[in-house]
Design goal:
There is one protein chain. It is built from five helices and five strands, in the order βααβαβαββα. It is an alpha/beta fold. It has a single domain, classed as 3-Layer(aba) Sandwich (Rossmann fold), CATH 3.40.50.9100. A five-stranded parallel β-sheet has the order 2-1-3-4-5, sandwiched between helices.
């Protein structure tokens, strides 16, 4: 049996559907999880969200030992957390950095990701439905490595 795919979400994503819907849409995190599980098919999926940098780092460490691929939406920590970047540098499997909005069309503070240089792939601006695309892409990347 293969190891699970991890989907890790950072701060404020628990407020999806309520927070700035003009940017992030009306899809809730519960709905995002359903999209991810549907897209994972028969692959096991671990889906998590935290507003805590420490907890996110612990989950990244867990994924290093227990996963076959990771999709991460670090949210605001994308641009500020060297600690998350350092943890992700240790990740040896396919890694997709994901953002619901197109961060490159937003204010300049959102243009410089600490995660992008170490990610296998980056997906931005596809809305919440993009999580499904990203999980399917991750499955393909994992299969190509096998």
């Amino acid at each position: 049996m293969s190891k699970p795919i991890y989907v890790i979400n950072g701060p404020n994503l628990n407020r999806l559907g309520l927070r700035e819907p003009e940017i992030y849409g009306y899809t809730t995190l519960v709905e995002v999880e359903s999209i991810c599980r549907d897209s994972a098919g028969d692959s096991e999926l671990v889906f998590r969200q935290s507003n805590s940098e420490c907890e996110l780092i612990e989950w990244i460490h867990e994924a290093i030992d227990n996963s076959s691929g990771m999709l991460i939406n670090p949210a605001a920590f994308t641009f500020t957390s060297m600690a998350i970047m350092d943890a992700l540098k240790m990740y040896p499997f396919p890694l997709i950095e994901f953002h619901i909005s197109n961060v490159h069309k937003r204010e300049p503070m959102y243009h410089s990701s600490l995660v992008s240089p170490i990610a296998t792939a980056i997906m931005v601006g596809t809305g919440a439905r993009g999580y499904g695309y990203a999980v399917r892409l991750l499955r393909d990347m994992i299969a190509e490595r096998a």
